[in-house]
Amino acid sequence: MSPExxxxxxxxxxxxxxxxxxxxxxxxxxxxxKSMIEGGHIRITGKPPKPSTKIKKFIExxxxxxxxxxLMLEPQEIPLNILYEDEYFLAIxxxxxxxxxxxxxxxxxxxxxxxxxxxxxxxxxVRGVEGSGVKEQGTENREQGPREMSGEHRAESVExxxxxxxxxxxxxxxxxxxxxxxxRLDKDTTGVIIVAKDSRTQEVLSALFKERSIRKTYxxxxxEVVMKNEGIIEGNIGRHPTNRKKMAVLKEGGRDASTAFKVxxxxxxxxxxxxxxxxxxxxxIRVHLTHMGHPIVGDDAYGKRAKHVTERPLLHAYRIxxxxxxxxxxxFIEAPVPADIEEFIxxxxx
Length: 350
Description:
Number of domains: 2
Largest sheet: 12 strands, mixed
Order of helices and strands: EHHEEEEHEEEEHEEEEEEHHEEH
Strand content: 25-35%
Shape: globular
CATH topology of the largest domain: Pseudouridine synthase
Number of helices: 7
Oligomer: single chain
CATH architecture of the largest domain: 2-Layer Sandwich
Number of strands: 17
């Protein structure tokens, strides 16, 4: 076991379950922590504990994070709402509840599994899309937020999946498709997400994100009535000092982050807004709006009344604008606002 996979923790809290505490400290899911405990990879004063063991201050916890076997990803026929497609990339309207990347907590049912099946079925054919919500810049009269707010969303976390066409499983062949996830959306965030079809397109799109040359527009419903018509929220974002699963605006450390916003409509106790992230930090919009005093409705991690009003954070990746990575033509892609947000706005209209 390599040294970086080993850990030694002197407990600084009391009363929590061991699996909960280690999940927060190590930024690993409780399911994974439980598996590590049951597999003998975690010890308290040299003895194997239980996941439910209550921790005490100053106890010493030793362990190692075991290496995982590579995920064997298979195509899965899951319906996709494709907003735009050409031979270089797809733009998909991601539904709520869909995880983007496979992981050891979500081995299937992800966007990547669905894209693999779609590309396998498609083969070398390129589907022409008309009336797909993609327009050249300037073809629609639309109200926009500050033009300098070109968005980046987790471009630093770009991953690419390689599939060797010689690898076979009992049920299917893993084809040599390379769906490149250029940016991410949280599981319950809906809206536009871009998937590159080849490594070169992925490199160019990733560079556009890093250079902040891609403008992203989100729509959200936030708690309370926002009094300012528009503004900019700034503040470095990093891991929460006590809850490692959350992010927070930090006085020291973290990474610089900036989000512009504009009020669309004030509701009865809530506000419907657009947000324009200039940077792409984890949970940036959720954290910045909470920092402003207006967390997103339904956000049970950052919100105040989340569980009593709606079943998910009402956050939607509404529009993305960029120069086409090959043709250089300005395009923008929009995903219609989902029904749950529209119904909430209608319900709480003034």
